[in-house]
């Protein structure tokens, strides 16, 4: 009965260990499943961010392309801002993926290894304790059986001695031998009894410790391990939500940026930009005079009519051919003049005579500004070399003054060539302006031929009037004036600075607030900080630049898209 009872106890303990082993293994599998779930979510975020970035990159304007030229329109700039914000939006999904990997996947992977090791150790201790108690029970059983066997042998030996002692036919020696044998068996039985009692006491102690200390401790450790596992899952699930919550403010800013970009679109400004870009400068045709076929008189044509008088003279008696104005098509024949033929063949006339008057004027002025900028660079180099030569003259040990002369001569020749080019383009510009309406003509002449006998190069000439795409602003009073005169010596620099200082200060026409920081590395620009308030002294003329002033000494151009302009009501009519 005792053996059956002990067997039932061991069986129940083993069953409990089996149940706990299955449950803890299921817990580990659940952690692995959740880790896999988070890993797949991270991969989805990474792929989504990659696709968003590729989409943004695909529709970004390419350099030297038509899309880049279209960036001067507000809706194009708004779309570019949307693409940039979308790129930042994709970055936040990359942040989600990185945080999921570092805060959850990596932590759970390491914890899984620790959990498996701890679980293995606890069940190893349980099996070891179970084996130890079973081994003690086996020793007790062996001792008990040996004590039982020795008792039976001692009883048989005692019975044999008594039988031999009662038999008169047995010799005294045989009786003595039987008596000694019985005593030896009794001694062995006593020894087995003592050994059995010791094993029994030891087993009872170990059994008590096994069921009241060892096994409960192992079960408690398994319970603590399971609670830690559940708590770790809880923390990871909370982090899973917090990772998304942390990027929500930045995602909201990205969406706000897209909304602000959409609200910054100005249809009227864009349509005005189209008008400025394609304004031809042609004068409207005059009235067609009445032709009286009832009188034998020659048909007269006004100078401003649509008929081409030159072709009439070259082809007397022929039918006059009118100029093709916008929205009028010649259905009979299409002829290519020399300018169009040059464009098709890839050669553009140097004087831009293939363009309409207004566009030609802008191109010529832009070319003059570009040449003036080159002249200023050459003059700056000449001034630097002149100072270096003076240093060499005062300190011969630093260098030979004659070594600078060849470079000075070369720079002088370059300046003469550039001034000659400027004079040539100014002549073409004057010719164009003479043919344009009187308002433009008078404004141009007052700025171009005011200083015929002097050579002045403004320090803020080309860079200030040139937008990033090379277009020219329509400001008239601060153009660069360069005439082909003898190369001024370094002593004339002071006179030029005095003339430039006397330039009229432009009035303030409004204020503006910088939306973004701008470095202003180029000459003629001014650096601004985000949120800085400035005075507007010249409105954007369609080239994407606005002229601002910080104080009496600091002024320059900033990109119009970088500032929010607030013009005064009475100042808009002046421009």
TrEMBL record:
One of the record's GO molecular function terms: lipid binding
Pfam families, sorted: FCH, HR1_TOCA, SH3_1
Coiled coil: 137-181, 361-388
GO cellular component, one term: cytoskeleton
Origin: domain of life: Eukaryota
Cellular localization per UniProt: Cell membrane; Cytoplasm, Cell cortex; Cytoplasm, Cytoskeleton
Protein name as annotated: Formin binding protein 1
Organism: Oreochromis niloticus
Gene that encodes it: FNBP1
């Amino acid at each position: 009965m005792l053996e059956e009872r002990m067997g039932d106890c061991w069986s129940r303990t083993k069953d409990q260990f089996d149940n706990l082993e299955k449950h803890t293994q299921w817990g580990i599998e659940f952690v692995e499943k959740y880790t896999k779930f988070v890993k797949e979510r991270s991969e989805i975020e990474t792929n989504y961010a990659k696709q968003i970035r590729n989409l943004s990159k695909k529709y970004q304007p390419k350099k030297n392309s038509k899309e880049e030229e279209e960036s001067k329109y507000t809706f194009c700039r708004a779309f570019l801002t949307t693409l940039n914000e979308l790129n930042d939006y994709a970055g936040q999904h990359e942040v989600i993926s990185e945080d999921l990997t570092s805060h959850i996947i990596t932590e759970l992977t390491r914890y899984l290894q620790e959990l498996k090791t701890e679980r293995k150790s606890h069940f190893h201790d349980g099996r070891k304790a179970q084996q130890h108690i079973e081994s003690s029970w086996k020793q007790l059983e062996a001792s008990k059986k040996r004590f039982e066997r020795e008792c039976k042998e001692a009883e048989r030996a005692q019975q044999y001695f008594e039988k031999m002692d009662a038999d008169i036919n047995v010799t005294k020696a045989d009786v003595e031998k039987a008596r000694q044998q019985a005593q030896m068996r009794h001694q062995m039985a006593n020894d087995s009894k003592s050994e059995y009692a010791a094993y029994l006491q030891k087993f009872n102690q170990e059994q008590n410790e096994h069921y009241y200390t060892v096994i409960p401790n192992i079960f408690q450790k398994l319970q603590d391990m399971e609670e830690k596992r559940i708590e770790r899952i809880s923390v990871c699930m909370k982090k899973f939500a917090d990772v998304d919550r942390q990027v929500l403010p930045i995602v909201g800013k990205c969406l706000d940026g897209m909304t602000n970009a959409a609200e910054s679109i100005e249809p009227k400004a864009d349509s005005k930009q189209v008008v400025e870009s394609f304004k031809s400068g042609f004068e409207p045709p005059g009235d067609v005079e009445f032709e009286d076929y009832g009188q034998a008189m020659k048909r007269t044509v006004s100078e401003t009519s649509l008929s081409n008088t030159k072709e009439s003279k070259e082809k007397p008696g022929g039918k006059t051919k009118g100029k093709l104005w916008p929205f009028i098509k010649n259905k009979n024949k299409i002829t290519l003049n020399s300018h169009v033929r040059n464009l098709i063949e890839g050669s553009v006339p140097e004087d831009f005579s293939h363009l309409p008057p207004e566009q030609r004027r802008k191109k010529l002025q832009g070319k003059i500004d570009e040449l003036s900028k080159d002249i200023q660079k050459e003059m700056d180099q000449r001034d630097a070399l002149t100072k270096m030569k003076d240093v060499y003259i005062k300190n011969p040990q630093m260098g030979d003054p004659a070594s600078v002369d060849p470079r000075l001569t070369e720079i002088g020749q370059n300046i003469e060539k550039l001034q000659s080019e400027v004079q040539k383009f100014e002549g073409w510009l004057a010719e164009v302006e003479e043919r344009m309406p009187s308002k433009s003509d008078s404004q141009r002449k007052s700025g171009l031929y005011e200083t015929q006998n002097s050579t002045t190069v403004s320090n803020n000439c080309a860079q200030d009037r040139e937008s990033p795409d090379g277009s020219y602003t329509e400001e008239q009073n601060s153009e660069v004036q360069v005439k082909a005169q003898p190369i001024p010596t370094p002593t004339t620099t002071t006179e030029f600075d005095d003339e430039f200082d006397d330039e009229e200060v432009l009035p303030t026409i409004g204020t503006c607030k910088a939306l973004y920081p701008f470095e202003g590395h180029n000459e003629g620009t001014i650096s601004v900080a985000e949120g800085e308030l400035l005075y507007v002294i010249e409105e954007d003329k369609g080239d994407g630049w606005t002229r601002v002033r910080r104080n009496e000494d600091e002024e320059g151009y900033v990109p119009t898209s970088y500032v929010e302009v607030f013009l005064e009501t009475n100042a808009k009519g002046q421009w």
